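Fold this sequence, please.
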Amino acid sequence: MFKLFKKIKKNFNPGSIFAFTKGILIGKMVVLVDSSEEKSFLMLPDMLPYTMKNDEFYFNYRNKTLDYIEELPDDVFVVVKAQYLKSIHAA
């Protein structure tokens, strides 16, 4: 028997970068900052906070609306997280 869905990586670490490949956000990139009940991202190049429910995230990932790009080095992620916190407090 064959698998209907390819196995997807379930545990993305903070610092993972994703690109939107479809929809109104096409061309935007997001960096995962927190992956608790909702996934929290910093949207690039706008430097705006963006949240997505886990179900919505995995649906978009499975349907190739979101593509995994790479994981940031730790020193770069520290800067991204600081910008994310600054953006949240500014709103």
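The chain has one domain: 16-90. The radius of gyration is 14 Å.
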